[in-house]
Design a protein that fits this description.
single chain; 5-stranded mixed beta sheet; 5 strands
Length: about 70
Amino acid sequence: MNELMEFDKRTVVVYTDDRQFANRLMTRKRCFKSIPYTQGDKLVGLDLYFPKSERKRLVKMGCEEC
């Protein structure tokens, strides 16, 4: 699941539980913050923060808008 949400006027957040997709997004220069969600020692999801200007690219890459 890949969800795109508006965080504030200048920032969007992508939540994903797909590790391969997260790795692709984290390598983008515009990703400026990531917050992992874990359950025990297992990674269950990530929030990845981008400037709002990246919204269209993220949708094209497979993020669903909420």
